[in-house]
Amino acid sequence: MLSETSRRQVLPLNHHWKYRETFDESFIDPNYDDGPWVMVNIPHTNKELPYSYFDEKSYQFVSTYRKTFTVDSVLHNERIFADFGAVMAYAEVYLNGQFLGSHKGGYTPFSVDLTDQIDLDRENTMVVKVDSRERDDIPPFGHMIDYLCYGGIYRDVSLRIVDPLHIKNVFAKPQKVLYQEKELETSVFVVNTTGEAADVVLEIKLSKDKKPIAAANRRVTLPADTEMAFDVYLRNLGGVELWDIQSPHLYELEVCLKRQDQLTDTYTTRVGFREAVVKPDGFYLNGEKVMLRGLNRHQSFPYVGYAMPKRVQRKDADILKYELGLNVVRTSHYPQSNHFLDRCDEIGLLVFEEIPGWQYIGDNEWQEVAKNNVREMIERDWNHPSIFLWGVRINESLDNHDFYKETNRIARELDPTRQTGGVRYLEKSEFLEDVYTMNDFIHSGGEIRLRDPRQVTGTEEYVPYMVCEFNGHMYPTKRFDQEERVVEHAMRHLRVQDAAARDPHIAAAIGWCAFDYNTHYDFGSGDRICHHGVMDMFRIPKMAAHVYASQMDPRERVVLEPATLWSRGDRSVGGVLPLVIFTNCDAVEVLVQGESIGTYYPRSEEFPGVPHAPVMITEIPSSGEWGSAWPSVEFVGYLDGKKVASKAFTKDAVPTRLTAEADDDQLDADGIDATRIVFKLVDQVGNPLSYTTEAVQIEVEGEGTLIGPSVSALVGGVLGVWVKTTETAGEIRVKARTNSQVARPVVITTK
Questions:
Q1: Which of 78, 376, 396, 561 is catalytic?
Q2: Residue 412: enclosing H or E segment and its boundaries?
Q3: Structure confidence by residue, pLDDT tens digits, 694-726
Q4: How far apart are the first and last CA of the chain?
Q5: Which of 406, 469, 488, 561 is catalytic?
Q6: Does the 276-549 domain belong in CATH 1.25.40.10?
Q7: Does the annotation count 4 as an active-site position?
Q8: Catalytic annotation on 241?
Q9: Is the N or the C terminus of the chain less surrounded, counting Cβ atoms within 10 Å?
């Protein structure tokens, strides 16, 4: 039904598509019988994959999606579009047998105008031909790539119904944000398809929590059959609170288009008032210097690749902010889900977003697609206050003057409010961007942690500079690796973060990377996984994750994580020393067999760059010589003299419980929503049995389905799974068992 206040309607088109893993010209015919095809909902991956050890070419094929729908005849004067969030990697769209449009590129949105071909009050058939092969004419393809680009229609699809005179886009640009009275310049992009000139009024309204703050309007004339942009200003805005990391204040902006006092369209977006700039002496947010500490994120998940719904995408932002304590994320190496970015806006997680690509630059046709990616990325995301930097260079590519001069020009023309960057691994690379963004992998465990920025840039003076990758492939680490390796992996992250914070000319240290990810056979550990993350693919932390979490303010979250499995014989020379404890406590007391053997303090003099240096213990009396009895231990953390945390390790770990915990206990019964459940086989004091490979049998009852296999081995004593809803409200009951333990059932309500 049409809205009473606006003729614009945006209707989800995610449900009940028919899908087939092939394409034939006959599929385009609206009368084709697709009855035997599989029914799927969007987001959808064209091929579910194993967690590891698979042929990546198994999803690189051409497939077909068909969708039937009707549109009411009351809409006969409207313009009707199909909006696609992303399709990997090339799409052709047909309606009722007629070709309507195509799109190259798997990470940016596109729209197709259905108006002239749609049948009102009759069934319409939309067909989408999806080419998920690695085509030489589409970034990031053409050479090797260190990640998988899974196929399918993996982001939302919607039907957009608007007046022939409508708003195409809105760019809200806060001005004078550090003044007491601020301003907002709003560019409104209006389309007139009526065939005649139109006198219209543009009204903008700023509000917060539905309470009006300010409004303005502008009367303009729009020529026939044209698209134009008009600026409308709000001035003298008092009482507007800034968007920052701690308090990410967001405001609602409503733009109305009226003709002859009749409302024809309404467009809403959110805006945050903030100034974010990288300078030669660091990053400044609202005039205050902030050290950016973060990680790179691939948007991939086990089994379904990119095809995870809104809730799961948003959860990743929460993990980065609240579990890892980050203040910045880089969207390596492509624009990511708008749901993820929305959540970054809401929680105050800064974002460096970049165009698709990895090392390789293709021919002129390829470069034109990349330039278009710049436009599509910026025009989609320019209202996100979390985004402070546009990446307009192909990650780790060689210099290309003409190409990168143009990508910078496009970005600056579209968005003069943000700086540009371009990630390279080259020293003395041509510097066309505003910020020299560098992957510095020089630290390999020795004394050298990072290069001096001037050594990298080759400039006499310091320039705006960020380190955008480090560690990663230099020291890939599995969660179940030997203790020495997982500890060294963690220490390498700590050393680089400390070194970056101690150099006033390095604005950011963004490590490689947050989560493990699937990759081609050319890379990774031979199992089609790059084990580069501080968390695994299931978002379960490795030891290195605690380096980041321990930097959080203890008033927000107390962290006490001894970097040990507390076993005598796992390390090469036996024992657990030196023992590192990642913590934000003031002091840590160690109790062996219940007796205190000392209190230890953070090594702040050794790691002055980080807010919370680790505790490092080189001697533990009574821990036992080789051949003597091995004891139990407890670590107790103190803040201001008060006990705030403890963690114990038993001397004789055995399987005691299988725990199960869901991220959410209530989901939407839409056939799309999903949540993660984490199973842990733990010992007597609740620690995962890090080297167990017991199988877990999972059974899902009620209104849910399991993503992935129902029988899986524990990975480092832990296993994550995702459960998806059906379209019927009710209850999901998830049961799990190993050979020795049965988990308490997880119950999730769907509404």
A1: 396
A2: helix 401-414
A3: 999 999 999 999 999 999 999 899 999 999 999
A4: 23
A5: 469
A6: no
A7: no
A8: no
A9: N
